[in-house]
Amino acid sequence: MPALMPSSELERKPPFGVVGRNFLVECEVHGLKIVQVEGHHITNIPKKSKKQNESSATKTAEDKQRFDAIVHVVHEYANFVSSAGMVLSGCDVEGVPFKPPINTHISHAFFLNCRKLADFFQNKPGPKNDDVRADHYVTGFKTALPVSDHWRDPIDKQLAPITYARDRNAREIDGPACEALYRELRGAWREFRNGLVGGLYEAEFSNRVSKRKGPSADGTPSEFRLCDLD
User: Fold this and answer.
1) Domain limits of the chain?
2) CA distance linking residue 229 with residue 155, whole number of Å
3) Mean pLDDT, to the nearest integer, of 174-180?
C-alpha cells in the first residue's frame, strides 16, 4: 500500500529516497499519483485524463459507501455475539437468568443475527442487490458454512412467515445447534478479519470494533464491553 502523505510533503519529496525513477505515492489532497522523481524532489505530477478522473470518482464514491457501511457490519456482529452469549448462558450481561418469555425473544434475536451474518459471509446479493457483502471488503472472500446451511430452513420457519411446516416438519434449534452456529460464524468473522489485513478497510474495521466496545459520549459503558468482537 502507498504511504499517506500530507499535501505539503507531496509537493516537496516522496516518502523514500529514490533517484531518477517514477514512484507511487498517496496524498490526502491529490489521491494516488505516479510522480517523476529526481533525487528527493518531485518534478512533475502527471495529469489524469478525463476518463481516468471519472473512473477514479466512481471508485471513490463506491469506497465511501463501503466505508460508511462498516459501522453497520460491526454493529450486527456485536449483536450476534451478545445474543449468542445470552442464548448459551440463559443470562443477561449482569449474569441474571432470564424469565419467560424473555428467553424466547432473545433466541429469536440470535436466529435473526445468524441469518444476517450467514448472508453477509456467503455474499448473497438480496432481492434489491443492495446488501453489504463480505467480498466488498475482501476480494474473493468465500467461506463454507455447513452448519448455517443445515439450520437455515428451520430458522426461516421459526422467524417468518407463519407456516404450516412448523407442524409438519418441526425441528427444534436446541442448545448444541445454537453453540455450533455461534462457533461457525465466529470462525467466519475471524477469517474475514484476517483477510482485511493490509487492505483498504482494515483500519476502519479495527476502529469501529474499538468504538463499539468503548463507552458512549456521556461515559455510559457499552453493552458490548464484555463481548469478544475480534
Assistant:
1) 4-47, 54-213
2) 24
3) 97
Taking the C-alpha atoms of residue 48 and residue 46, their distance in angstroms, rounded to an integer, is 7
What is the rounded CA–CA span in Å between residue 109 and residue 150?
Answer: 19
Residue 26 has pLDDT above 90, yes or no: no
Which pLDDT score is estimated for 14?
Answer: 46
Amino acid found at 182: Y
Residue 145 · residue 184 · CB < 8 Å: yes
Mean pLDDT of the chain: 83
Task: State mean pLDDT over 76-95.
Answer: 95
Cell of 208: 469501529
Beta bridge partners of 97: 91
Q: What is the mean pLDDT of residues 22-49?
A: 53
Residue 45 has a pLDDT of 55
